[in-house]
């Protein structure tokens, strides 16, 4: 690999680490609760704005503010989501469609609250909690934040693998929460752990990503939401595959900045490069929809609507997942 290509690949590691954390957060919640948390982006956005408010308005140290949001606000919000929204829905055996609608409702609520509290003005003053200095390794400039982000990905991946040792109990909660509770399994406690882990990783994703962007409530929510494709491409179950997809997509995105074409081809390339995680999300969704439609038509069914395809994505992931494991 040439020096320029190596520099670009290393530049993509930071984005890849954040995308991997995002994907692992979605998977963590899904593997315990069976809920595809489409509010992940909004939770990350709100966490980023809270951190900024603590630093800029209340003058707290950046690291302290980040820890307060990720380890304080996020777990409490996750418990609130489980207790007030998704727990009651699952206790009533709500289908995947209703759970998705609830997730989008939480997204609208958080974006509206952030816009009302902090306005819709685009900002560039999010505090950078990690070192922004550069160090040279093997002739390549590497941001000092990258090793920290890589370590976080490894730790989260290992934690998810350790937690997945309780496979049968977790699977029972996903299959039927009410029956799991009747069987004496700690269904609610497991669900709470899943939501706490997911919201903490969502907040961490927002806090790490915001300093790299010119952001507003809607735009930051969408940027984080794009990384949902990482979890979907990993079938909402495989942590190693999610990490591989995240870093692979980010590195390809970074390498494409070194490719220059003229005319309409250049415009298309720029659009694909800047929205590569969106492309990944669309491809992953298309794959799941095509797979579901193929099964339906093979059994005499008819083509589904887009909403039904999203529901089928969740249902098919549950069918493929089997007992949770790394």
From TrEMBL:
One Pfam short name: BPD_transp_2
A molecular function (GO) term: transmembrane transporter activity
Subcellular location: Cell membrane
Keyword Cell membrane found: yes
Topology within the bilayer: Multi-pass membrane protein
GO cellular component terms, A-Z: plasma membrane
Domain of life: Bacteria
Residues forming coiled coils: none
Listed GO biological process terms: amino acid transport
Keywords, comma-separated and alphabetical: Amino-acid transport, Cell membrane, Membrane, Transmembrane, Transmembrane helix, Transport
TM helices/strands, residue ranges: 6-27, 34-51, 63-87, 99-118, 138-163, 190-209, 241-259
Family: Belongs to the binding-protein-dependent transport system permease family. LivHM subfamily.
Protein name: Branched-chain amino acid ABC transporter permease
Organism annotation: Actinospica durhamensis
Source taxonomy: Bacteria, Bacillati, Actinomycetota, Actinomycetes, Catenulisporales
């Amino acid at each position: 690999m040439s020096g320029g290509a190596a520099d670009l690949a290393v530049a993509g590691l930071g984005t890849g680490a954040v995308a991997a954390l995002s994907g692992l957060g979605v998977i963590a919640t899904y593997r315990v609760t069976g809920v595809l948390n489409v509010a992940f982006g909004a939770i990350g956005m709100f966490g980023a704005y809270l951190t900024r408010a603590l630093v800029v308005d209340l003058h707290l140290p950046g690291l302290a503010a980040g820890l307060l949001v990720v380890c304080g606000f996020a777990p409490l919000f996750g418990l609130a989501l489980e207790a007030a929204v998704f727990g009651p829905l699952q206790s009533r055996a709500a289908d995947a469609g209703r759970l998705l609608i609830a997730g989008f409702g939480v997204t609208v609520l958080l974006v509206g609250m952030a816009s009302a509290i902090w306005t819709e003005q685009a900002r560039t003053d999010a505090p950078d909690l990690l070192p922004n200095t550069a160090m040279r390794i093997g002739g390549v400039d590497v941001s000092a934040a990258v090793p920290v982000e890589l370590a976080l990905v490894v730790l989260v991946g290992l934690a998810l693998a350790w937690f997945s040792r309780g496979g049968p109990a977790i699977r029972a909660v996903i299959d039927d929460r009410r029956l799991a509770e009747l069987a004496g399994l700690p269904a609610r406690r497991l669900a709470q752990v899943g939501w706490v882990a997911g919201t903490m990783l969502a907040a961490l994703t927002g806090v790490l990503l915001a300093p790299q962007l010119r952001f507003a409530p809607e735009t930051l929510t969408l940027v984080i939401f794009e990384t949902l494709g990482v979890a979907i491409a990993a079938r909402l179950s495989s942590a190693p595959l999610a990490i591989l997809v995240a870093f692979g997509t980010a590195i390809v995105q970074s390498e494409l900045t070194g490719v220059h074409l003229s005319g309409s081809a250049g415009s298309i390339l720029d659009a694909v490069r800047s929205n590569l995680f969106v492309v990944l999300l669309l491809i992953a969704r298309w794959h799941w929809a095509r797979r579901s439609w193929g099964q339906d038509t093979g059994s005499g069914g008819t083509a589904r609507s887009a909403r039904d395809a999203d529901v089928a994505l969740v249902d098919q992931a549950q069918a493929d997942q089997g007992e949770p494991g790394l």
